[in-house]
Amino acid sequence: xxxxxxxxxxxxxxxxxxxxxxxxxxxxxxxxxxxxxxxxxxxxxxxxxxxxxxxxxxxxxxxxxxxxxxxxxxxxxxxxxxxxxxxxxxxxxxxxxxxxxxxxxxxxxxxxxxxxxxxxxxxxxxxxxxxxxxxxxxxxxxxxxxxxxxxxxxxxxxxxxxxxxxxxxxxxxxxxxxxxxxxxxxxxxxxxxxxxxxxxxxxxxxxxxxxxxxxxxxxxxxxxxxxxxxxxxxxxxxxxxxxxxxxxxxxxxxxxxxxxxxxxxxxxxxxxxxxxxxxxxxxxxxxxxxxxxxxxxxxxxxxxxxxxxxxxxxxxxxxxxxxxxxxxxxxxxxxxxxxxxxxxxxxxxxxxxxxxxxxxxxxxx
Length: 365
Fold this sequence. Notes:
By secondary structure, the chain is α+β, with helices and mostly antiparallel strands.
C-alpha cells in the first residue's frame, strides 16, 4: 500500500537544494525585468506510480505537456536596501510568490532588496492548469532573468520541481509540499509547444505546434475550487489507484513512447501521441483515478470518447488530475459547442511555441 502525507511547511523552506550555478549572478543593467510566462496543460503522466511521495523530492513519473498562451506577467525590480522581498498588494498567490523568491534568494545568493508584482490572464485554481506550479516557475524565472540567468533551464527546472508547494487558504506563511513533475517550469524555459518530459524533470523531446491549431479548455461549472489541503488529502487517499495503474501499464507506455510516439513526433505527426494519451486516460484507469477531484469527470470523459477518431482533434485529454479537459483542434467551434453542452465553461487559446517572453515593465499587461 502506498502512503502519502502532506504536512504544511514555512514559506521559503528549501526542501531540496544541491544545484550548481551556471554563471555568477550578475544584476542586469536596467535593474528591472518583466516576463510573460505561459501556462502548461498536462496530457498524461508516463508512470503514475512514481508520483507517490519521496523524501528526496525527486519524481520519475514523466509527462506529456502542452504549453499554451495563457500568461502570468511578472515584474521584478531591485529597490533600495538589502535582503528584503516586497510583494505588491495586488499580486495574487502571495505565499507561492514569496516561496519562489525566497528559494531563489537562498539558491543564487543575491543580497539586494527586490520588489515583485505579478498578474494573471486567468485566475482559476486547482483545475489542472498548473496555476500553482506556474506561479512558482514564473517568479523564479523572472528572478533568474534579473540576475543574468545563473541557473540553466535544466537547473531551474529541478529547483522548482523539487521545491514545489501548494498554498493554503487564509495562510500566507505556510505551503503544503506537493510532488511536482516539472511541466510548468519546463514549459516556460524550453522551446517547443509540446514537451515530452522523462523522470527527474528531464525534457527529452520538444516540438512546435502549427498556429493553425487552437486549444479549447473546458472547466466544469459545478467545480467548487476547494482548498489545496483538502484536494491533497483526497489525492493521498486515492494514491493506490495511481500506483496500480503505473505498475500495470508503465512498461507498455514506455515501449509505445520509444517506438511509436517519439518517431511519429520526429516526423511531425501527433497521431501516435494522441492514441497513447487516449489509451492512458480512457482505458488504463487514469480518469477514474482522478475522479476524486470531481466525480462527474467520468461522465464527461465518456462523452468525449468520440474524439479518438475525429480528424479535427489533434490531441485531447484531462489536464493533470483535472477537472479541466482540453482539446488541440482545427475546429474550435465544434469543441466549444461540445464542452458547453457538458456544462463546462470554455477558454480558447493557442499553443505557445517557445520560452517565456521578456516584455514591457508592467506586470498588469
